[in-house]
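Board notes, transcribed. Complex of a protein with methionine sulfoxide.
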Amino acid sequence: MSDQQPIQPEWPVWYEPSSPLAAAVRYVAALSPRFNWVGIYVLKGNFLELGPSIGPPSEHTRIRVGEGVCGTAVSENADQNVPDVRERENYLACSLETRSELVVLIRDRAGKILGQIDIDSHVWSAFGPDEESQVRQVARELGELWQESENRYQL
Ligand code: SME
């Protein structure tokens, strides 16, 4: 379908209107060889539900708000950059190889949390300011396009 869509000048380079979440995940996963698992969780009520992901399958397909690093991001309304997952008591292990994790919230234009981009790395402290800002940009772009995508394609 996407090849039949007219190119919109305001679309980010990674955007595919027929599968925006999967396209964002693919783009983010290609940003760094240190990004060993990349997924998007969608906030539905009091739970985060796993959408598209790249990497080994995660058993955490549904996470309650407030639980784990992912749920904490929502309950604290703050991105989470965890350089050493062993230091987080509430960490939910996705893979035993994971050493660091970055969670960036996706918000709509009004600031409401829609979901999050979650990245695991096998490397300690894999996420510096450059990685944070690259992922935040994708999250911002996705948040701005979310409403349109949801209406048309049922994310
Ligand atoms: N580590 C996350 C769970 C998701 S997996 O990493 C894919 C957490 O603590 O919430």
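DSSP finds three helices and six strands in the chain. The pocket of methionine sulfoxide is lined by residues 37, 39, 58, 60, 63, 68-70, 91-92, 94, 101, 118, 120 (CB under 6 Å).
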